[in-house]
Amino acid sequence: MTTQSELAVRGARRSARRARAADVALGIATPIVLLVAWQIAASTHAIDTRIFTPPSDIVRTAGSLATNGTLGADLGITTARLAVGYVIGAVLGVVVGLALGVVRPLRSALSPLFAALYAVPQIALLPLLLVIFGLGETAKIITVAAVTFFVVELNTLGAVRRVPPELLEAGQAYGATRWRRFVHVLVPATAPGIFTGLRVAVALALVVVTATEFVAANSGLGYLVWNSWQLFEPADMYVGLVVIALLGVVATGIVVGVERLVLPWTRRRAR
Questions:
Q1: For the segment 147-202, what is each residue's pLDDT rounded down to a tens digit?
Q2: C-alpha dist (Å) from residue 114 to 107, 118, 245
Q3: Which residue spans traverse the membrane (predicted)?
Q4: How many CB atoms lie within 10 A of CB 257?
Q5: Where are the domains of the chain?
């Protein structure tokens, strides 16, 4: 019986590995097929190459921008704006979300206000912030921090509200102090919900930082895309879009990696 069980487990693991390999293969093959089709369509003039620049030209342009330092500089600036704004907003969002979840009067006082502010697109605050702080980095970082804050705060608050009361009551029954129940029961129970907010927020933060660079910057990947569009340099524009997409993948991957490090059971569940 034990041997049959072990064989069944091994077979299930092999099937899971094959399924993951197939998923990875499909994920890699799909963009390659699309790029090949794009290149063929451009080479045969089936599409307007003035708008849909061939992938081969985009690669050459990326090499040129990387060589002259433009691409690296813009990538570094956007990454810095994203990282600073995201970290500030995430930390504040977790702290405030936990506080609102634990302290009922505070939740009653602030939750309606935060819900109303969340309904306002944070990018709409940029003109006001530019008037207050000028065209420097402060307005851009605050805008990124704002969108991150609201997403993380709402997810954190929701995670706290979903914690079963029985968990906290069990900790109390074992004589745990309020602080120990908070640290050892509430925070671990809410951590998956918090990381859900962090994953969503990093993508929205990238969207917002790119949008701010469209209209209020003379550097960064968003500026590269916008300026290339104005000058009708589609190859440069596509390079900027591709790098923004790659930055989003890397940023999300970092958040997921931290989640799997902090919450190892999520890694086992994903297998």
A1: 999 999 999 999 998 887 776 667 666 666 777 777 777 888 899 999 999 999 99
A2: 10, 6, 30
A3: 21-41, 83-103, 115-135, 200-226, 238-263
A4: 11
A5: 1-52, 53-270
Nearest to 114 by CA among 100, 125, 103: 100
- DSSP state letter for 135: T
pLDDT tens, residue by residue, 208-219: 999 999 888 888
- Residue 142: count other Cβ atoms within 10 Å of its Cβ: 20
Q: How far is CA 105 from each of CA 75, 86, 101, 162, 198, rounded to the nearest angstrom?
A: 44, 28, 10, 18, 26
Phi-psi region of 104 (alpha: psi -120 to 50; beta: other; left: phi over 0): alpha
Q: Per the structure block, which two tokens stand in for 213? A: 């660079």
Range 133-141, long-range pairs (CB < 8 A, 24+ positions): 135/216, 135/217, 137/81, 139/212, 139/216, 140/81, 140/85, 140/209, 140/212, 140/213, 140/216, 140/217, 141/81, 141/84, 141/85, 141/88
Q: What CATH topology corresponds to 53-270?
A: MetI-like fold (1.10.3720)
